[in-house]
Amino acid sequence: MHEVREIAKNVFWVGVRDWDRRLFDSLIPLPYGTTYNAYLVKGLGKVALIDTVNPGFEGELKAKLEQVGGIEQIDYLIMNHAEPDHAGSIPFVLKENKKAKLVLTEKGAKMAKALYRAPEDRMMIVKHGDTLDLVGRTLQFIEAPFLHWPETMFTYLREDRILFPCDFFGAHHAGGDFARDVKELLPLAQKYYGEIMMPFSKSGKSGIAKLEGLEIRMIAPSHGPIWDDPEPIMAAYLSWTAQETKQKVTIVFVTMWQATKALVDRMVQTLSSEDVEVRVYNLPISDIAAIAGDLVDSRAIVLGSPTVLGGLHPQALYAASLVKVLKPPAKFAAVLSSYGWGGGAVKQALEILGPTNIEAVGAVDVNGYPTPEDLKKVEELGKLLAGKVKAQPPG
Ligand code: FEO
Predict the structure, then answer these.
(1) 158 falls within a domain
(2) Same domain, yes or no, for 64 and 112?
(3) Which residues pair with 280 in a beta bridge?
(4) Do both 65 and 201 map to the same domain?
(5) From its phi and psi, is residue 330 left (phi > 0), alpha (psi between -120 and 50) or beta?
(6) How many Å lie between the centroid of ligand 1 and the Cα of residue 111?
(7) What is the pLDDT of residue 17?
(8) What average pLDDT does the chain have?
């Protein structure tokens, strides 16, 4: 028997747990694996499958569906999102079941054609506010673009007040059934938000606004455990999508001969003495997801890097580029650098930060190991940064 869970009467979790997955998008570490959640909703007359699973798990999905009535009973296959971790098994389901309609947004239809060669005559395009009657149960569709791709939508099961938002409100963890089963789920959800949703914070805010007026009893995302109490994750998402920040600074650095580290250490000491929360990541040994998670609510970023071949160390260049694309809500930045015979790292860092909304508060660039005077400059910069961080309102 495969694991199937009835999360409400005749609403079944038929997803899979992928404990072995260690990387997402060839970028994001998954220390606890992840799940690809799919849900079978049975009405009195019709049956819908909401999302599918990552390619490679088709057999497991089919076996689970067999336990709750079989793959051939599905009338509607709802595609909330076209990314392969949720939609990759659509060709399999459509092949096994010749009658099911693929329900998706207009943009979703284009993607389903391009990615899965889904036939047009099997598609049913829905718009924001459309409903689907399963007899005794109603699915309502909420277009929520860019959460995470342009075609995304949420599905709301009216009678049971369950929201199926696909990636939104998700977390990467293969364990647990409900949120209460996974300790530290909220920090994991914050990491996930930083990695996946932070570049789309404005879309997130719009997506949440579209939920206004809907009573939500349960949030069943497509990654990680189900939020049977939606309050904690909803409160967190309201804050994150509003880009609220704390009196918190994330420092990311790389050092080769400890000169940059000496600058970073003094910065940490100064910020901490000013009662500012500090998170420090030594880039070559750090988890990018953890950094992304801390950037969700940090008010400032400090980048530390030696000059290597006239510019940033490649690890720092990578981090700076990530900051640019992840669009964290940080308001301020500072740069710490050391060089042997010619600078360049600070200039390159400021060039990358230039087009962002982040104000470069200052930089300390030292030749060789920092002197007591250099460290004094770091202290001054730290105090200036702390003052700005503390004076800035959260939103
Ligand atoms: Fe979990 Fe954007 O796919």
Answers:
(1) yes
(2) yes
(3) 251
(4) yes
(5) beta
(6) 14
(7) 98
(8) 97
Q: What CA–CA distances, in Å, run from 319 to 83, 165, 261, 282?
A: 25, 30, 16, 11
395 within some domain:
no
pLDDT confidence of residue 131: 98
Q: What is the dihedral of CA 387, 388, 389, 394, to 10 degrees?
A: 130
Domain co-membership, 103 together with 206: yes
Ligand 1 centroid to residue 61 C-alpha, Å: 18
User: What pLDDT score was predicted for residue 394?
Assistant: 84
- What is the spatial distance between Cα 56 and Cα 182, in angstroms, rounded to a whole number? 26
For the CA of 170, the closest atom of ligand 1 is 1
Question: Are 55 and 195 members of one domain?
Answer: yes
- Residue written as token pair 């400059």: 377
Close Cβ partners of 116 (under 8 Å, ≥ 6 residues apart) = 87, 88, 90, 91
Strands 39-42 and 47-50: antiparallel
pLDDT of residue 26: 83
Q: Is 18 in the pocket of ligand 1 (CB under 6 A)?
A: no
pLDDT in tens, 245-294: 999 999 999 999 999 999 999 999 999 999 999 999 999 999 999 999 99
Q: Is 173 in the pocket of ligand 1 (CB under 6 A)?
A: no
Q: Which atom of ligand 1 is nearest to the CA of 148?
A: 2
Q: Whose CA is nearest to atom 3 of ligand 1?
A: 83
Cα torsion 296, 255, 333, 191 to 10°: value is 0
> Do 263 and 195 share a structural domain?
no
Determine the distance separating the centroid of ligand 1 and the alpha carbon of 358, expressed in angstroms: 28
Residue 81 CB less than 6 A away from ligand 1 = yes
Distance CA 93, CA 97 (A): 6
Do 115 and 179 share a domain, yes or no? yes
Total domain count, the chain: 2
CA–CA distance, 98 with 75 (Å, rounded to integer): 10
| CA of 86 relative to ligand 1 center, distance in Å | 7
For ligand 1, the distance from its centroid to the CA atom of residue 24, given in whole angstroms, is 9
CATH number at residue 81: 3.60.15.10
Q: pLDDT tens across 117-167, in order?
A: 999 999 999 999 999 999 999 999 999 999 999 999 999 999 999 999 999
CB of 365 shorter than 6 A to ligand 1: no
